Structure formats: C-alpha cells, structure tokens
Amino acid sequence: MATYREIHGKPIKSLSTDPSVSTDEGQIWYNTTSNTFKSMVGLEAWSSAAALNVAREGTTGFGLQTAALCAGGETTVAVGTTDEYNGTGWVAKTAMNTANRALAGAGIVTAGVVFGGFASATNTEEWDGSAWTASGTLNEGRNSLAGLGVQTSALAAGGQPGVKDNAESYNGSTWTAETALSTARVGAAGGGASDTAAVVFGGYTSSPPTVPTGATEEWDGSSWTAGGALNTARYALAGTGTLTATLAFSGQAAPGRSDSTESYDGSSWTTSPATLATARSGLGGAGTTSAALAFGGTTPPISYLTEEFNKSVTVYTGAAYSSVANMPGARAAEGAGSKNGTKTAAMNWCGGPGFSNTSVEFNGTSWSATPNYPETARHVGGTGVEPAALGVGGFTGPANLNTVAEYDGSSWTGGGAYPVSQYSVATAGTQTAAITAGGGSNTTTSNDYDGSSWTANPSMSSGRSFAGNAGTQTATIAMGGSNQPAGECEEFDGSSWTSGGNLASGYVGESTATGGTQTAGMMCGANAAPGGAAGSAGYLQTYDGTSWITDASLGEPRSNAAVSGTTNSNLAAGGYGPGAAYNNAAEEYNVGSTALNVKTLTQS
Fold this sequence. Notes:
With 604 residues, this protein is an all-beta fold. Helices cover 1% and strands 42% of the residues. It has three domains: 37 residues, no CATH class; 270 residues, 6 Propeller (Neuraminidase), CATH 2.120.10.80; 265 residues, Neuraminidase (6 Propeller), CATH 2.120.10. The protein contains one helix and 54 strands. The strands form 14 sheets. Strands 1-2-3-54 form a four-stranded mixed beta sheet, with no helix packed on it. A four-stranded antiparallel beta sheet has the order 4-27-26-25, with no helix packed on it. A four-stranded antiparallel beta sheet has the order 5-6-7-8, with no helix packed on it. Strand 23 and strand 24 form a beta hairpin. The chain is globular, with a radius of gyration of 27 Å.
C-alpha cells in the first residue's frame, strides 16, 4: 500500500500547535499537545456581506470579489446607480448616462462595459473606473441577455423581445454579428475571459409558458458546441468565471427561486454543497469560481443583499450585528445615548413611546437602571462616555427644552443651559468638550460646550434636523437629516463648515444613530426617505473622510436608535421599527474574521 508521503510528496508533520497560516489543502499533521491527527479541509460556503446602497433587481456586475461593480437595475423604475465593492462594502460611484435595467456587463472594476437593457436596448457604455462613456451600439437591440468577457473583447448572446438566438462580439468600440446560439433563450448567464472563449447557460426558451433550460453552449470564436446541462434549469441567474471554470448561482427555477450553486469545468456541471442564504432572481454577480459575489435581485421584495462565495481552507466570518440583552421596558425609541462609549460600557436615556426620564446602562452583558434623567422627554441629544454622559435639549410634548444634564456615574446634575430650546440636537464629543449641529426645524446652528457654557460656531451651510454628527470640536462631520434627500454631509474644522461625502444613496440619514470620528465616522439605522415614508434602513455605513461605504445590516432595521462605540466595535440599542413598532432590541457589531478550517481526524 502506498504511503501518504508517496502519494502527496510530503511527510506528516509533527506540531505542538495547529498552523496559523494556510497550508496545502489535505495536509495532515500530528498535534503532540492533543495527541491527534489533524488536517486542513477545504470548504465551499456563502456568507453575508455588506448591503448594496440601493436595493434593485435586473442589475448587472463585473470584476472580482474584492473589486466589483454593480450597475443599473430596477427599484420601481430603471436606475443608473453605480456602486463599487472593495471586499468590505459598497461605495456610490458616478451613475450611468442612461438609467437601465435587464442589461448585461463585462470587464473589471477599472475597465468595464455594459450593454442592452429595457431602457435603451442597443445602448453600450464603457466604465474607466470613475466615469461612463457612450460607445458603439448593439446591432440587435435586446434586454435580459447574457454578457461576458472584458471591455475590449466582450460577447452578448440571447435576450428578448421574443426569444433571441443572436450573438455579437465587441472589440472596445463596435459590435459585430456572430454565429447564432443553437438554443434561443432569455435570461441566460455567461462566463468567459474573452469573446473567443466563452460559455452561455440557463435562461428560458419560451413564454408563455416560461420554460427554464439548463442548456449550456461553448463558444470558440466561430461556432457554438453543446456542453453539459445545468443540474438545475433556471433563468435570471448570475454567472462568473471562465470557459473551463465557471460558476452559476441562484435564479428562477421551476417552481420557485433557486439557492443552488454549480461549477463548470469545461464539460459538466457539479452542484456545490454551498447554497445562498437568500434565493433570488435578477441578481448580479462577479468574481471567480473560488471567490464570487452575488448582489441585489428579488426574492421578492427587491433586495439589497450581498453574499460572498469562497472555496478555500479558510473559514470566512463576515462582519455582523448580533443580538445582546434587550433594554428593559418598552421605553425604546427616540432616546439619547453615550455615543463615545463602548459596546461594554454604554448608556441610554429618555425616549418613547410617549415620554420618559428613564436612564439605563449596559455592561456588555446586562442592562441596569441608573438615576432618572432630570426631564421626561424624547429627542434628547446625547454624547459622552459612560459614566460621563451629556444630554442636550429635547421635547416634552408641549414644549422644547434647553436643558443640559451631566452624568457622573451616580447622578445627573444640571449643566450650562443650551442657548435655545431645541429638540433633535445632534451632539458629539465629550462631556467637557462637546459640539452640536442643527436640530428642530432644520436649523443651521452649531455650538461648542466646555463643561459649563456654550459658544456659537459658524453656521452650517444647510439646515438639518433629525441628523447625526460625530467627531470633536475641531474635526466634526454632520450627517444627513430630514431635509437632505441625497444624504448630504458637512465637515467642520474648528472654524468653518465645508461639504463632505454624501451618505450611501437611498438613505438620507434621518433619525439615525451616529458615532465615531470625522475620518472614521459611522451611522446605523435611519429613515430611508424624508419623513420615514419608506420605512427604516438597517445597515451600518462608515466614513473614511471622503466617502461612505456600506457594512453589515442590523438584525432589526430601525430609526431613532442610540449607538455607543466605534466603526469596528459598537452597540446599537432601541429605535423605531420595523413597521410602526417601538423597539427595545440591542445589537453589538463585530468585524469580520478568518480562520483555518482545521479538522481532527478520527477512525471510523
């Protein structure tokens, strides 16, 4: 019988601790501490990732898992929204020249191309990493088509209206008609590194009734040949990869949407043990067969979800919020918090329903009552650390407040009165060095606090209420607000306010929980439209001093929460939503991590 060394060309190692870095899959070693044989085992898995800026279906994408682009799609109308993924989250980029849906794309994040679609069926636009430029038009206008390749060597195949078999190749400026597909289809996907080495698969062949197909065809630059069929016939799926290493995932099967993932080796498809957490159709995809990305689509409803696929000996755990002990009582929304505290030392006070003076603190495990706040109110501004918190202003029902209260770890005492009676005063900094921004009916006011009295700052350029802020007296960012439909932000340097990067599109930052610094700011939970008409948003956004990027979603989407901590370690508590419900849930955020998939070998 052959030995392990003869088969694999390497010995079984003897180690006192398991390896901390990746080794070859299948490598076996003997752990002398546990007296066990162990091995590095490969995994295939999908994991949750940061949400898209805008929920959409009928979108397209291209690039790698750590450098991908999502372009166009449909909310209730076609959009030209463009988002870039950097392996952590999505950043809003320049919109396409033509809002479009059911289009196709090809390329990399710095050199891509999109084509076809409902809005302009012959349209082609090229992406250079920062802007879109119109290019040569398709010969055959179509939507719901397959696309693949790179910017200077792309292929378009199939689509509608009707059920098309047409194929065209793109050289970076013009489209040329090619040999037709053997099977006409709509809603197919494709993979391939160029317009001369490609594979097209899935789609539907007639409608009505809609008949999904698993048919696969390979293209060599001049003709199509049949390949192995998908194990799950489907359409409106996503695909990525090359002719001999392709990945197909999700899509509309019969019946229902599929969560299945399949890989193609140039001759046959193999179903992966990894399934998407959320089955959907009309989604976008990017990446390779070992590191792919799925985003958007419809379940229904239309989705902003993103998932990462990895085939590796490394286990990936995405950044996520997880539930901790709920705050006591129903007094859960529109309260204030110690935003510069930590997720193991946080405070929350006042809020609704109705009005409250209750104050509580969190030690990382449980909540406990502290002495009551001096006012029975909601919409109180809050900042500081636990146990040195600061409350500013608020609303009692009949009247606004100019009350300022300080907490010393055992009691609340009055501080220097705020210059004006006001509610929803965005407050940042510390108890002895705080700064405010806006409040009330879209005011532009900003003031500094030194622990006893207030000093006026220059006014903001734009009035805002139900906004947030973060940072210090000389380095502040004011975020969003109820009259900022594009999520406009401003930065303060101690002497003047200037424009900062806008919040992720679609979320205006009204009634949001905010914290961090001017160059590492954060917000989580917000109304998705002024006045909360579109409900509340659940995901975290972080700011690097230039732009906002999406991150993990709250388990309970809500507005009017309070936050304590930093961009990579925080606690969100209370809020309003989902729906019209007051919320006393608390969740803590943890950054993503990786670990080797080490298995102990046993004899059976």
